[in-house]
Amino acid sequence: xxxxxxxxxxxxxxxxxxxxxxxxxxxxxxxxxxxxxxxxxxxxxxxxxxxxxxxxxxxxxxxxxxxxxxxxxxxxxxxxxxxxxxxxxxxxxxxxxxxxxxxxxxxxxxxxxxxxxxxxxxxxxxxxxxxxxxxxxxxxxxxxxxx
Length: 147
Prior knowledge:
Layout: H1 2-6, E1 8-10, E2 21-23, H2 79-92, H3 95-107, H4 117-127, H5 137-143
Antiparallel strand pairs: 1-2
């Protein structure tokens, strides 16, 4: 009860504006201007010192289909991280970089790449890789599984 009496409300706006500033340690609340719409989201987990992976990966339920190449040895908590890495890779890089990084991820036991370049190409297009000029299947086959 004493702590509640230490909190005070100060109105720094025009009379009747209903805009208030709360002084004190208030947690678990959402503040918004009158008439505003607020969407709450889960707070991002802080990265550990040294830049390693966070201890808890994804608690919320994710929808959509995972990448079909995820290695069976990958922990279920890390599947979405690998999936997101592949999505970012194919949407931002060229064919040579994509193939080189896929091979590296395969060597790191994150991905289990198919033998067929056509199957790999189809899956990467599904994951967001462009399939126009410079990203055709013939070019992809040229660099797929090359060191």
